[in-house]
Design goal:
single chain; alpha+beta; two-stranded antiparallel ribbon; 2 helices; 47% helix; elongated
């Protein structure tokens, strides 16, 4: 594999993981956001979908964000009759965001980002070493 292709693939991986981190951050920021009034829905968790795409110019497959969608799972209910958005039975719909799951996803995205960054660094070092070898001849 060409070294420049390696860097391009890793850069595309870093880009999608950066987007993933932004989506996770938004989910965490809204983990306790309830509806404004009874009958309204609270914040719905967002999820990111990836896809492989062929880069015709480089002849490699890269990853990109296909779309940011919403998690259609049910909203948990919490009993809080004094809350402004509580229904007639005293239950409030809460966002379908699990802070534990989001934290684990964030850690995974961070590790993937770091792995791609390390690949770019190793590739850069190989290119520099090759240039040094060519200079010495």
């Amino acid at each position: 594999m060409d070294l420049m292709n390696s860097m391009a693939i890793s850069a595309s991986g870093m880009k999608v993981q950066g987007t993933r981190l932004r989506v996770i951050s938004e989910n965490l920021a809204n983990a306790n956001s309830t509806a404004a009034s009874p009958g309204d829905l609270p914040y719905r968790r967002k999820v990111i979908l990836f896809e492989n795409v062929l880069d015709q110019e480089m002849g490699t497959e890269k990853v990109r964000v296909k779309k940011v969608d919403v998690d259609r799972s049910d909203f948990p209910r919490r009993y809080d009759p004094g809350h402004p958005s509580a229904d007639a039975d005293g239950y409030v719909l809460m966002p379908n965001v699990s802070t534990l799951n989001e934290s684990m996803d964030m850690r995974e995205a961070q590790r993937s980002y770091e792995a791609n960054l390390n690949t770019i660094d190793a590739t850069r070092q190989m290119i520099m070493r090759t240039v040094d070898l060519l200079r010495s001849n």
